[in-house]
Specification:
Elements lengths: L2 E5 L5 E5 L2 E2 H8 L1 H6 E6 L2 E4 L3 E2 L3 E7 L3 H22 L4 E2 L4 E2 L2 E7 L6 H17 L3 E6 L1 H10 L3 H9 L6 E6 L2 E4 L13 E11 L8 E10 L2 H17 L1 H7 L3 E2 L10 E2 L1 H20 L3 E2 L5 E3 H7 L1 H4 L8 E3 L2 E5 L4 H8 L11 E10 L15 E11 L1 H22 L4 E7 L13 H17 L4 E5 L8 E7 L5 E10 L2 H4 L4 E2 L5 E2 L2 E6 L4 H12 L12 E5 L5 H13 L4 E3 L6 H10 L4 E5 L1 H6 L1 E6 L2 E8 H13 L9
Parallel strand pairs: 1-7, 18-22, 24-25, 31-32, 31-33
Antiparallel strand pairs: 1-2, 3-6, 4-5, 4-7, 8-10, 9-10, 10-15, 11-12, 12-13, 14-15, 16-17, 19-21, 20-21, 22-23, 23-30, 24-26, 26-27, 27-30, 28-29, 33-34, 34-35
The protein binds one RNA strand of 75 nucleotides through strand 14, strand 15, helix 8, strand 23 and strand 27.
Amino acid sequence: MNNIKITFPDNSVRSYEAGVTAIDIANSIGPRLAKETIAASINNNLVDAFLPINNDAKIELHTIKSSISHDILLHSTAHLMAQAVKRIWPDCQITIGPVIENRFFYDFDIDITFSDNDLIKIENEMQKIVEENHNVSRTNLSRNEAIKFFKEIGDNYKVEIINDLDPSENLSSYHQGEFVDLCRGPHVPTTGHIKYFKLLSTSGAYWRGDENNKMLQRIYGTAFFSKKELNKYLNFLEESKKRDHRKLGKELSIFSFDDEVGSGLPLWLPNGGVIINELEKLAKETEDRYGYHQVRSPHITKGDLYKKSGHLDLYKESMFPAMDIDGTEYYLKPMNCPHHHKIYNASPKSYRDLPYRIAEYGTCYRYEKSGQLFGLMRVRSMQMNDAHIYCSEKDFKKEFLDVCKMYLEYFDIFGIEKYQMRLSLHDKANLGKKYINQPDLWIKTEDQVRNALEEGGINFTEIPGEAAFYGPKVDVQVWSAIGKEFTLATNQVDFAIPRKFDLSYTDEHGNYKTPLCIHRAPLSTHERFIGFLIEHFGGDFPLWLAPVQIVLLPISDKYLNYANNLKEKFVDRGFRVKLDDRPDKIGAKIRQSEIDRIPLMVVVGEKEEQDNSLSLRRRFIAKQRTFSVDNFILDIQKEIMNRSLPNRES
RNA sequence: GCCUACGUAGCUCAGUGGUAGAGCACUUCCUUGGUAAGGAAGAGGUCGCCGGUUCAAUCCCGGCCGUAGGCUCCA
């Protein structure tokens, strides 16, 4: 037997017999390590821990602690689930079963539809396979062998996948017990490595994501290496449900939907109205500071304008059908840009007028397919925090970065700590289909945006094929306080439409030039942003946004007079205040105020009336404090003016 | 739009082929109580909408509308 040299990450070298596996190597270091080894990188290639190593190599072991291993576990659990499904329903066809963030799914072509009971049945079968503790093995296959093999066992979808793969691709199959799947791997060494898993939900899913294909049945699930992690994740899902803006929005009377109004058409209740007003105040203040003009435009417009803008060619399916008015077609506006272009053009512009920045909380209507409506996050009527900046190429970079700066200011105010800018680019294949057919301008503009972002020191990732039809965009992903992801704002560059609209300005030399146009919507739409805020804050808005800021809680009716005096004082100061004058005990009033998430609970009784003071109970602050009325007012005014975030320390 | 599930009081949910119930909320009365539920009474439903089957439908069947989880698409 010849020996091989294995080099470890710390550069130490050990000698083993050729054919040794990563598990063997782990075992030579310690049995616990061997047990916890899931996969290995051999010369930086991720492989199964159970494969023989025949030559000198660099090795890195991946144990249950690494995120690589977690992905492998999820993938193996998908196989485990597919094996269980095939045992129960032998006629079903397996298709694909990839890993997504913290979860996996597998799509099946099967006659029955999975019920909750079926999920339990499948889980039980999975448990059995785990206990059977099958070794997992890998077989390399040539293309022809693979096609022959999967044809023989009747896995037609696998045959289709192989036929569509690059012929140069190395193929392999994974086996555990009677189950075989076409797969790149790697996988956990045995089915016994999978201990803590849970099937989460079922749904329909088109084969290869194409709505012209057959609808398959998908099962989602998750798995972890420890019970604790699994429970933590399940708990996170539960917490997310509790914070769901649809649930909280109803409980806190922020918005509602009504069958008779129509789906995707939210009604803003008074509490929502307060939040909207505060957001608009913030936006207007900020935009004033950045030199924007506020404008207004109508909700309906003639079709010709949208023909010119390209909407009727490239965006029509997202627009409500035309209405005929005196023989002319009018549309509900899906975007504000054409109107803003017209506002730009309402008077001739010189270079001295640029950058020309116009903003509007414009109401737009989009025909979203019924199946994609989702609470406030996806609606058919929405009010955008929209603005367009018309500038020269020379000013572009500064204007673009100022927009980014504005984003960061907002993030700071709302306590958004995690965010990501995504530069969405065009792809050549869709020029003239999804995208305006001006290849050179696309590339030039994308370079400009990329340069601006790089010079501004802003981190971003690039995503091809996600641009708006008229230009590249920077989408902003944010994560709420509990880590749920949202696509919120967007920031787009339009290089083509200004020309179509004959937008121009006179430069220093008296020549006509076409301006660049930046679209930006840092606060997204009221709908999506407030939906996000509800979940981000879990319904506990900072004082400046809270629909009711102060609730007055008299100990008994005897102190109603004093409470009313305070109320009047607070209203005079512009505070949003409510008086709970029900004949209930203080405990009941406190409870209701807590449920309503009112940040400041002011308790007044005999003592307070005598001292002209108040006793403050604040959400998340255990200790109650007594204030003189004047000091209280000063503190609160300051907190509201600064738009401070909720303080949860005691 | 597609797949699947669901739709009973303001909210959360029971329930049945013979035209409905609970808790909370609401109204009234009693209680005037110091930091997360004091007590009693009352009112409240065309059981999503429209058809069909049946002597009889909230329940069974069909269509529509709405909602949820996904697919696809997006702020």
